[in-house]
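G., the chain you wanted modeled:
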Amino acid sequence: MPVSVPTPDQVIELADEMGLDLTDADVESYIGIFEAQVNDYNIVDAMPDNLPAVKYPRAPGYQPKGEENKYNAWYVKTEVKGASSGKLKGRRVVLKDNIMLAGVPMMNGAATLEGYMPDIDATVTTRLLDAGATIVGKAHCESFCMSGGSHTNAKGAVHNPHKMGYMAGGSSSGSAALVASGEVDLAIGGDQGGSIRMPSSYCGIYGMKPTHGLVPYTGIMPIEVYVDHTGPMTNNVEDNALLLEVLAGKDEYDPRQYNVKTQPYTEALNGKQGLKGMKIAMVKEGFMQENAEEDVNTKVKAAASLLESLGAIVEEVSIPMHLVGPSLWMPIGIEGSAQTMMHGDGYGLSRSDLYVTSLMDFHRNWRTRANELSETLKIITMFGTYIRKYYGTRYYGKAMNQTRLLTAAYDQVLNKYDLLMMPTTAIKSQPIPAPDATREEVVQRAFEMLANTSPFDISHHPAMSIPCGMSEGLPVGLQLIGKHFDESTIYRAAHGFQEGVNWKEI
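Predicted structure as tokens:
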């Protein structure tokens, strides 16, 4: 769309927003200067965009209804067949619906994005197809991925396969539900505050948030560059490790990647040593969240005893700063998402990324449809804008500075232990709020489970949720946290636990 030279009224409006006082002569002068700049913009506008090619044929698919979408986990069903051979040959994979699959609709859980059709494949999409996978569709996620519950998608709530009427967790809600129900073999989720691990905990599957930058985020709608993660969600450890082998590695576009170190993750599962001699630190503060359910803590502590019986050394440690981790996450998550995802049209500025301008153009329309945003998006955008307008960016900056101390606190313990452990979520899945639920209940159910997961999105440590018990018909999740780029040690422990116990009987 060509850029026009601003009118005198537009110049006056812009000046008023800046606090500038202009004379009529000033207005005329500025317009004359802007003409040259507009010309440069229109040179850029006339150029074709520079986007990666789409490699595999596909159809737009359809939105399944009724029994074909029992848990409301599917957004679109389709079939995109990858290479004729590879590590994932014959495996059915679903993508979280913030991940681009060219020619197939993407709405990221939001009414204001419904109708958008990506024109590229995300890097992870291409890697899946190159490895022989068949992508079978897009899974519902929470509205702009801003909820740890599963009740904010514009198409309705996603149900927990273990208990209808209960939440699947979020924001990768559909991904977790489809894996747990056995409708797909593998899923890709996203994690900015716990959005892989929280639904994995609620649904009783294995969800890995890798080290920040290990898996490229290119072609996935961002929230905030510092906390954007994507990773595998599966029904067993073997599949999870295999999927990470396919996804991990350097990408030419993603500025989140720095000093990326990959490992042959499946090899961690082949050793006979298992858990023998592994030192695991059970973080006391992970059991001290205000809303912690006693049965959750009991199941995770029972799992710790089982880890010991399998040869691990488990010792309780204290990391007091863990309890302020969610508070540090808040300015980064709220202000970052308000400025990048919303005011920045999904991408913002000041980084070398692959900017998907079709998404940026489509997403701009939220400004004329703000009433259709979820309550979580209204809260985050409004409050993030308020802080920026009246207080500036100092709290974002201070939180970022403190995050380095948080990272160091975890590293200090990880220098002595192989892993940290704690409950993934302090609570089990909760009932889906009723359609007429208050704003307060909707928001509470969206953010009440982030306390043990969000700190590792800003410390960037790899963290995995593994199922470790059932209570009241609902799964309980155990979170394992490792050193940066040491996902293999997490897999070794998770696999040893998987092979040594039946988690449904804990």
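The chain has two domains: 8-46, 66-505.

Shout if anything looks off.
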